[in-house]
Automatic annotation (TrEMBL):
The lineage of its organism: Bacteria, Pseudomonadati, Pseudomonadota, Betaproteobacteria, Burkholderiales. InterPro entries: Aminotrans_3, Aminotrans_3_PPA_site, PyrdxlP-dep_Trfase, PyrdxlP-dep_Trfase_major, PyrdxlP-dep_Trfase_small. It comes from Caldimonas thermodepolymerans. Keywords: Aminotransferase, Pyridoxal phosphate, Transferase. GO terms for cellular component: cytosol. Belongs to the class-III pyridoxal-phosphate-dependent aminotransferase family. PANTHER family: AMINOTRANSFERASE (PTHR43094), AMINOTRANSFERASE CLASS-III (PTHR43094:SF1). One of its GO terms (molecular function) is transaminase activity. Its cofactor is pyridoxal 5'-phosphate. This is Aspartate aminotransferase family protein. The keyword Transferase applies. CDD domains: OAT_like (cd00610).
Amino acid sequence: MGASPAEGPTVTHVFHRQLNTTYPRAVAAQGVTITDADGRTYIDASGGAAVSCLGHGHPDVLAAMHRQIDRMAYAHTSFFTTDVAEELADELVARAPAGMGRAYFVSGGSEAVEAALKMARQYFVEIGQPQRRHFIARRQSYHGNTLGALAVGGNEWRRRQFAPLLIDVTHVSPCYEYRDRRADETPEQYGARLVRELSEAIDRLGGENVIAFVAETVVGATAGALVPVPGYLKGVRELCDRHGILLILDEVMCGMGRTGTLYACEQEGVVPDLVTIAKGLGGGYQPIGAVLAQQRLVEAFERGSGLFQHGHTYIGHPVACAAALAVQRVIQRDGLLEAVRRQGAGLRERLQAAFGAHPHVGDIRGRGLFQALELVRERTSKAPFDPQWKLHARIKREAMAQGLMVYPMGGTIDGQQGDHVLLAPPFIVGDADLDAIVERLSRAVDNALASLPA
Ligand code: PLP
């Protein structure tokens, strides 16, 4: 038998992702903080994994969930629809990019991506183009850990050992201005070069054989808040249209207000055919994700087989829908998109002041309350640290010791791990919280750097 929680765990029977690690035991959470069993508090400056957009313990969300549980916890979607799923779909469709007519609910981001990939493929079967069987996606991207999502994902480190199991996907360059824009290029010229590269990839496959191009509007978990250069996604949209290829934007991390507009693609002036959302949709109160689909795709299904050949047990779970509906209504009622823009600018200013001249911070980037640092051994050459040193993981450890949660990542730079820190605090974050976040992060970064081998 394992030790009782009160004595503290000697053996854990939970199969944690990271083995041989001792985690603090989270016991309570309120607002922007989480408290552990030893009474230590942590500022949740990453919203978990860019999830907790309203912070913790929001009374309106809890009340909505309680009401729904009391009424009905579960009804399977092959028998029923529910008021709460219908209301959530109405709310999402009303505020979605133009033409999005339906919301398909799932339980998280990877499921949303899987569903979008299958929806895209089935759409072409429905309209008599079954020869379309290729996806194109980008390096330095993360779309989830299930096999389809992993296949479109472009993080070599995550894919490597599963590569034999993955569908064959063509990967093109990410839009990574800090590393890849040439000194003699404007951002627009760089974006146009990336669109040409995509065009060449499409031509090699044959435009009539490609199902979709898949991209995160703002890249999150592999490279830290990579923002597209002006015009790039518009160029991608035009190219896709020319070949009848669908554009799937993955806004699981950057969507639902995180960048200051409900959908990050609004700021690019681009409307996708399918958009995936999760994380901030339910704000962590319940596991929920969704795919929003253009009405013309839905109509093709209606005219065709009348069945999307897919499904999961917990689709449209009433309590999850109630939580998400409450989260989304609070965001609108309390003007939190405006708060994201205002506090995001405040966070960026503080990061600039603390790290703008730091010898090992090569780039500070992001949008809204989705900001990142990229750490480098040397600023001029942008050379990364030795990946074996795992600087990003050291920063996470040091930050936790300071009572701060940040999202560290080792992206892939020239086939090597790079070091990024992503900040995605709740939309309710206050000025004093931002001061504390950046002060603690500064100490954590400096302590982590001081711990590196000489
Ligand atoms: N897509 C993006 C852009 C993500 O950032 C993530 C998770 O970080 C996913 C998909 C997968 O979501 P989940 O972890 O909920 O399966």
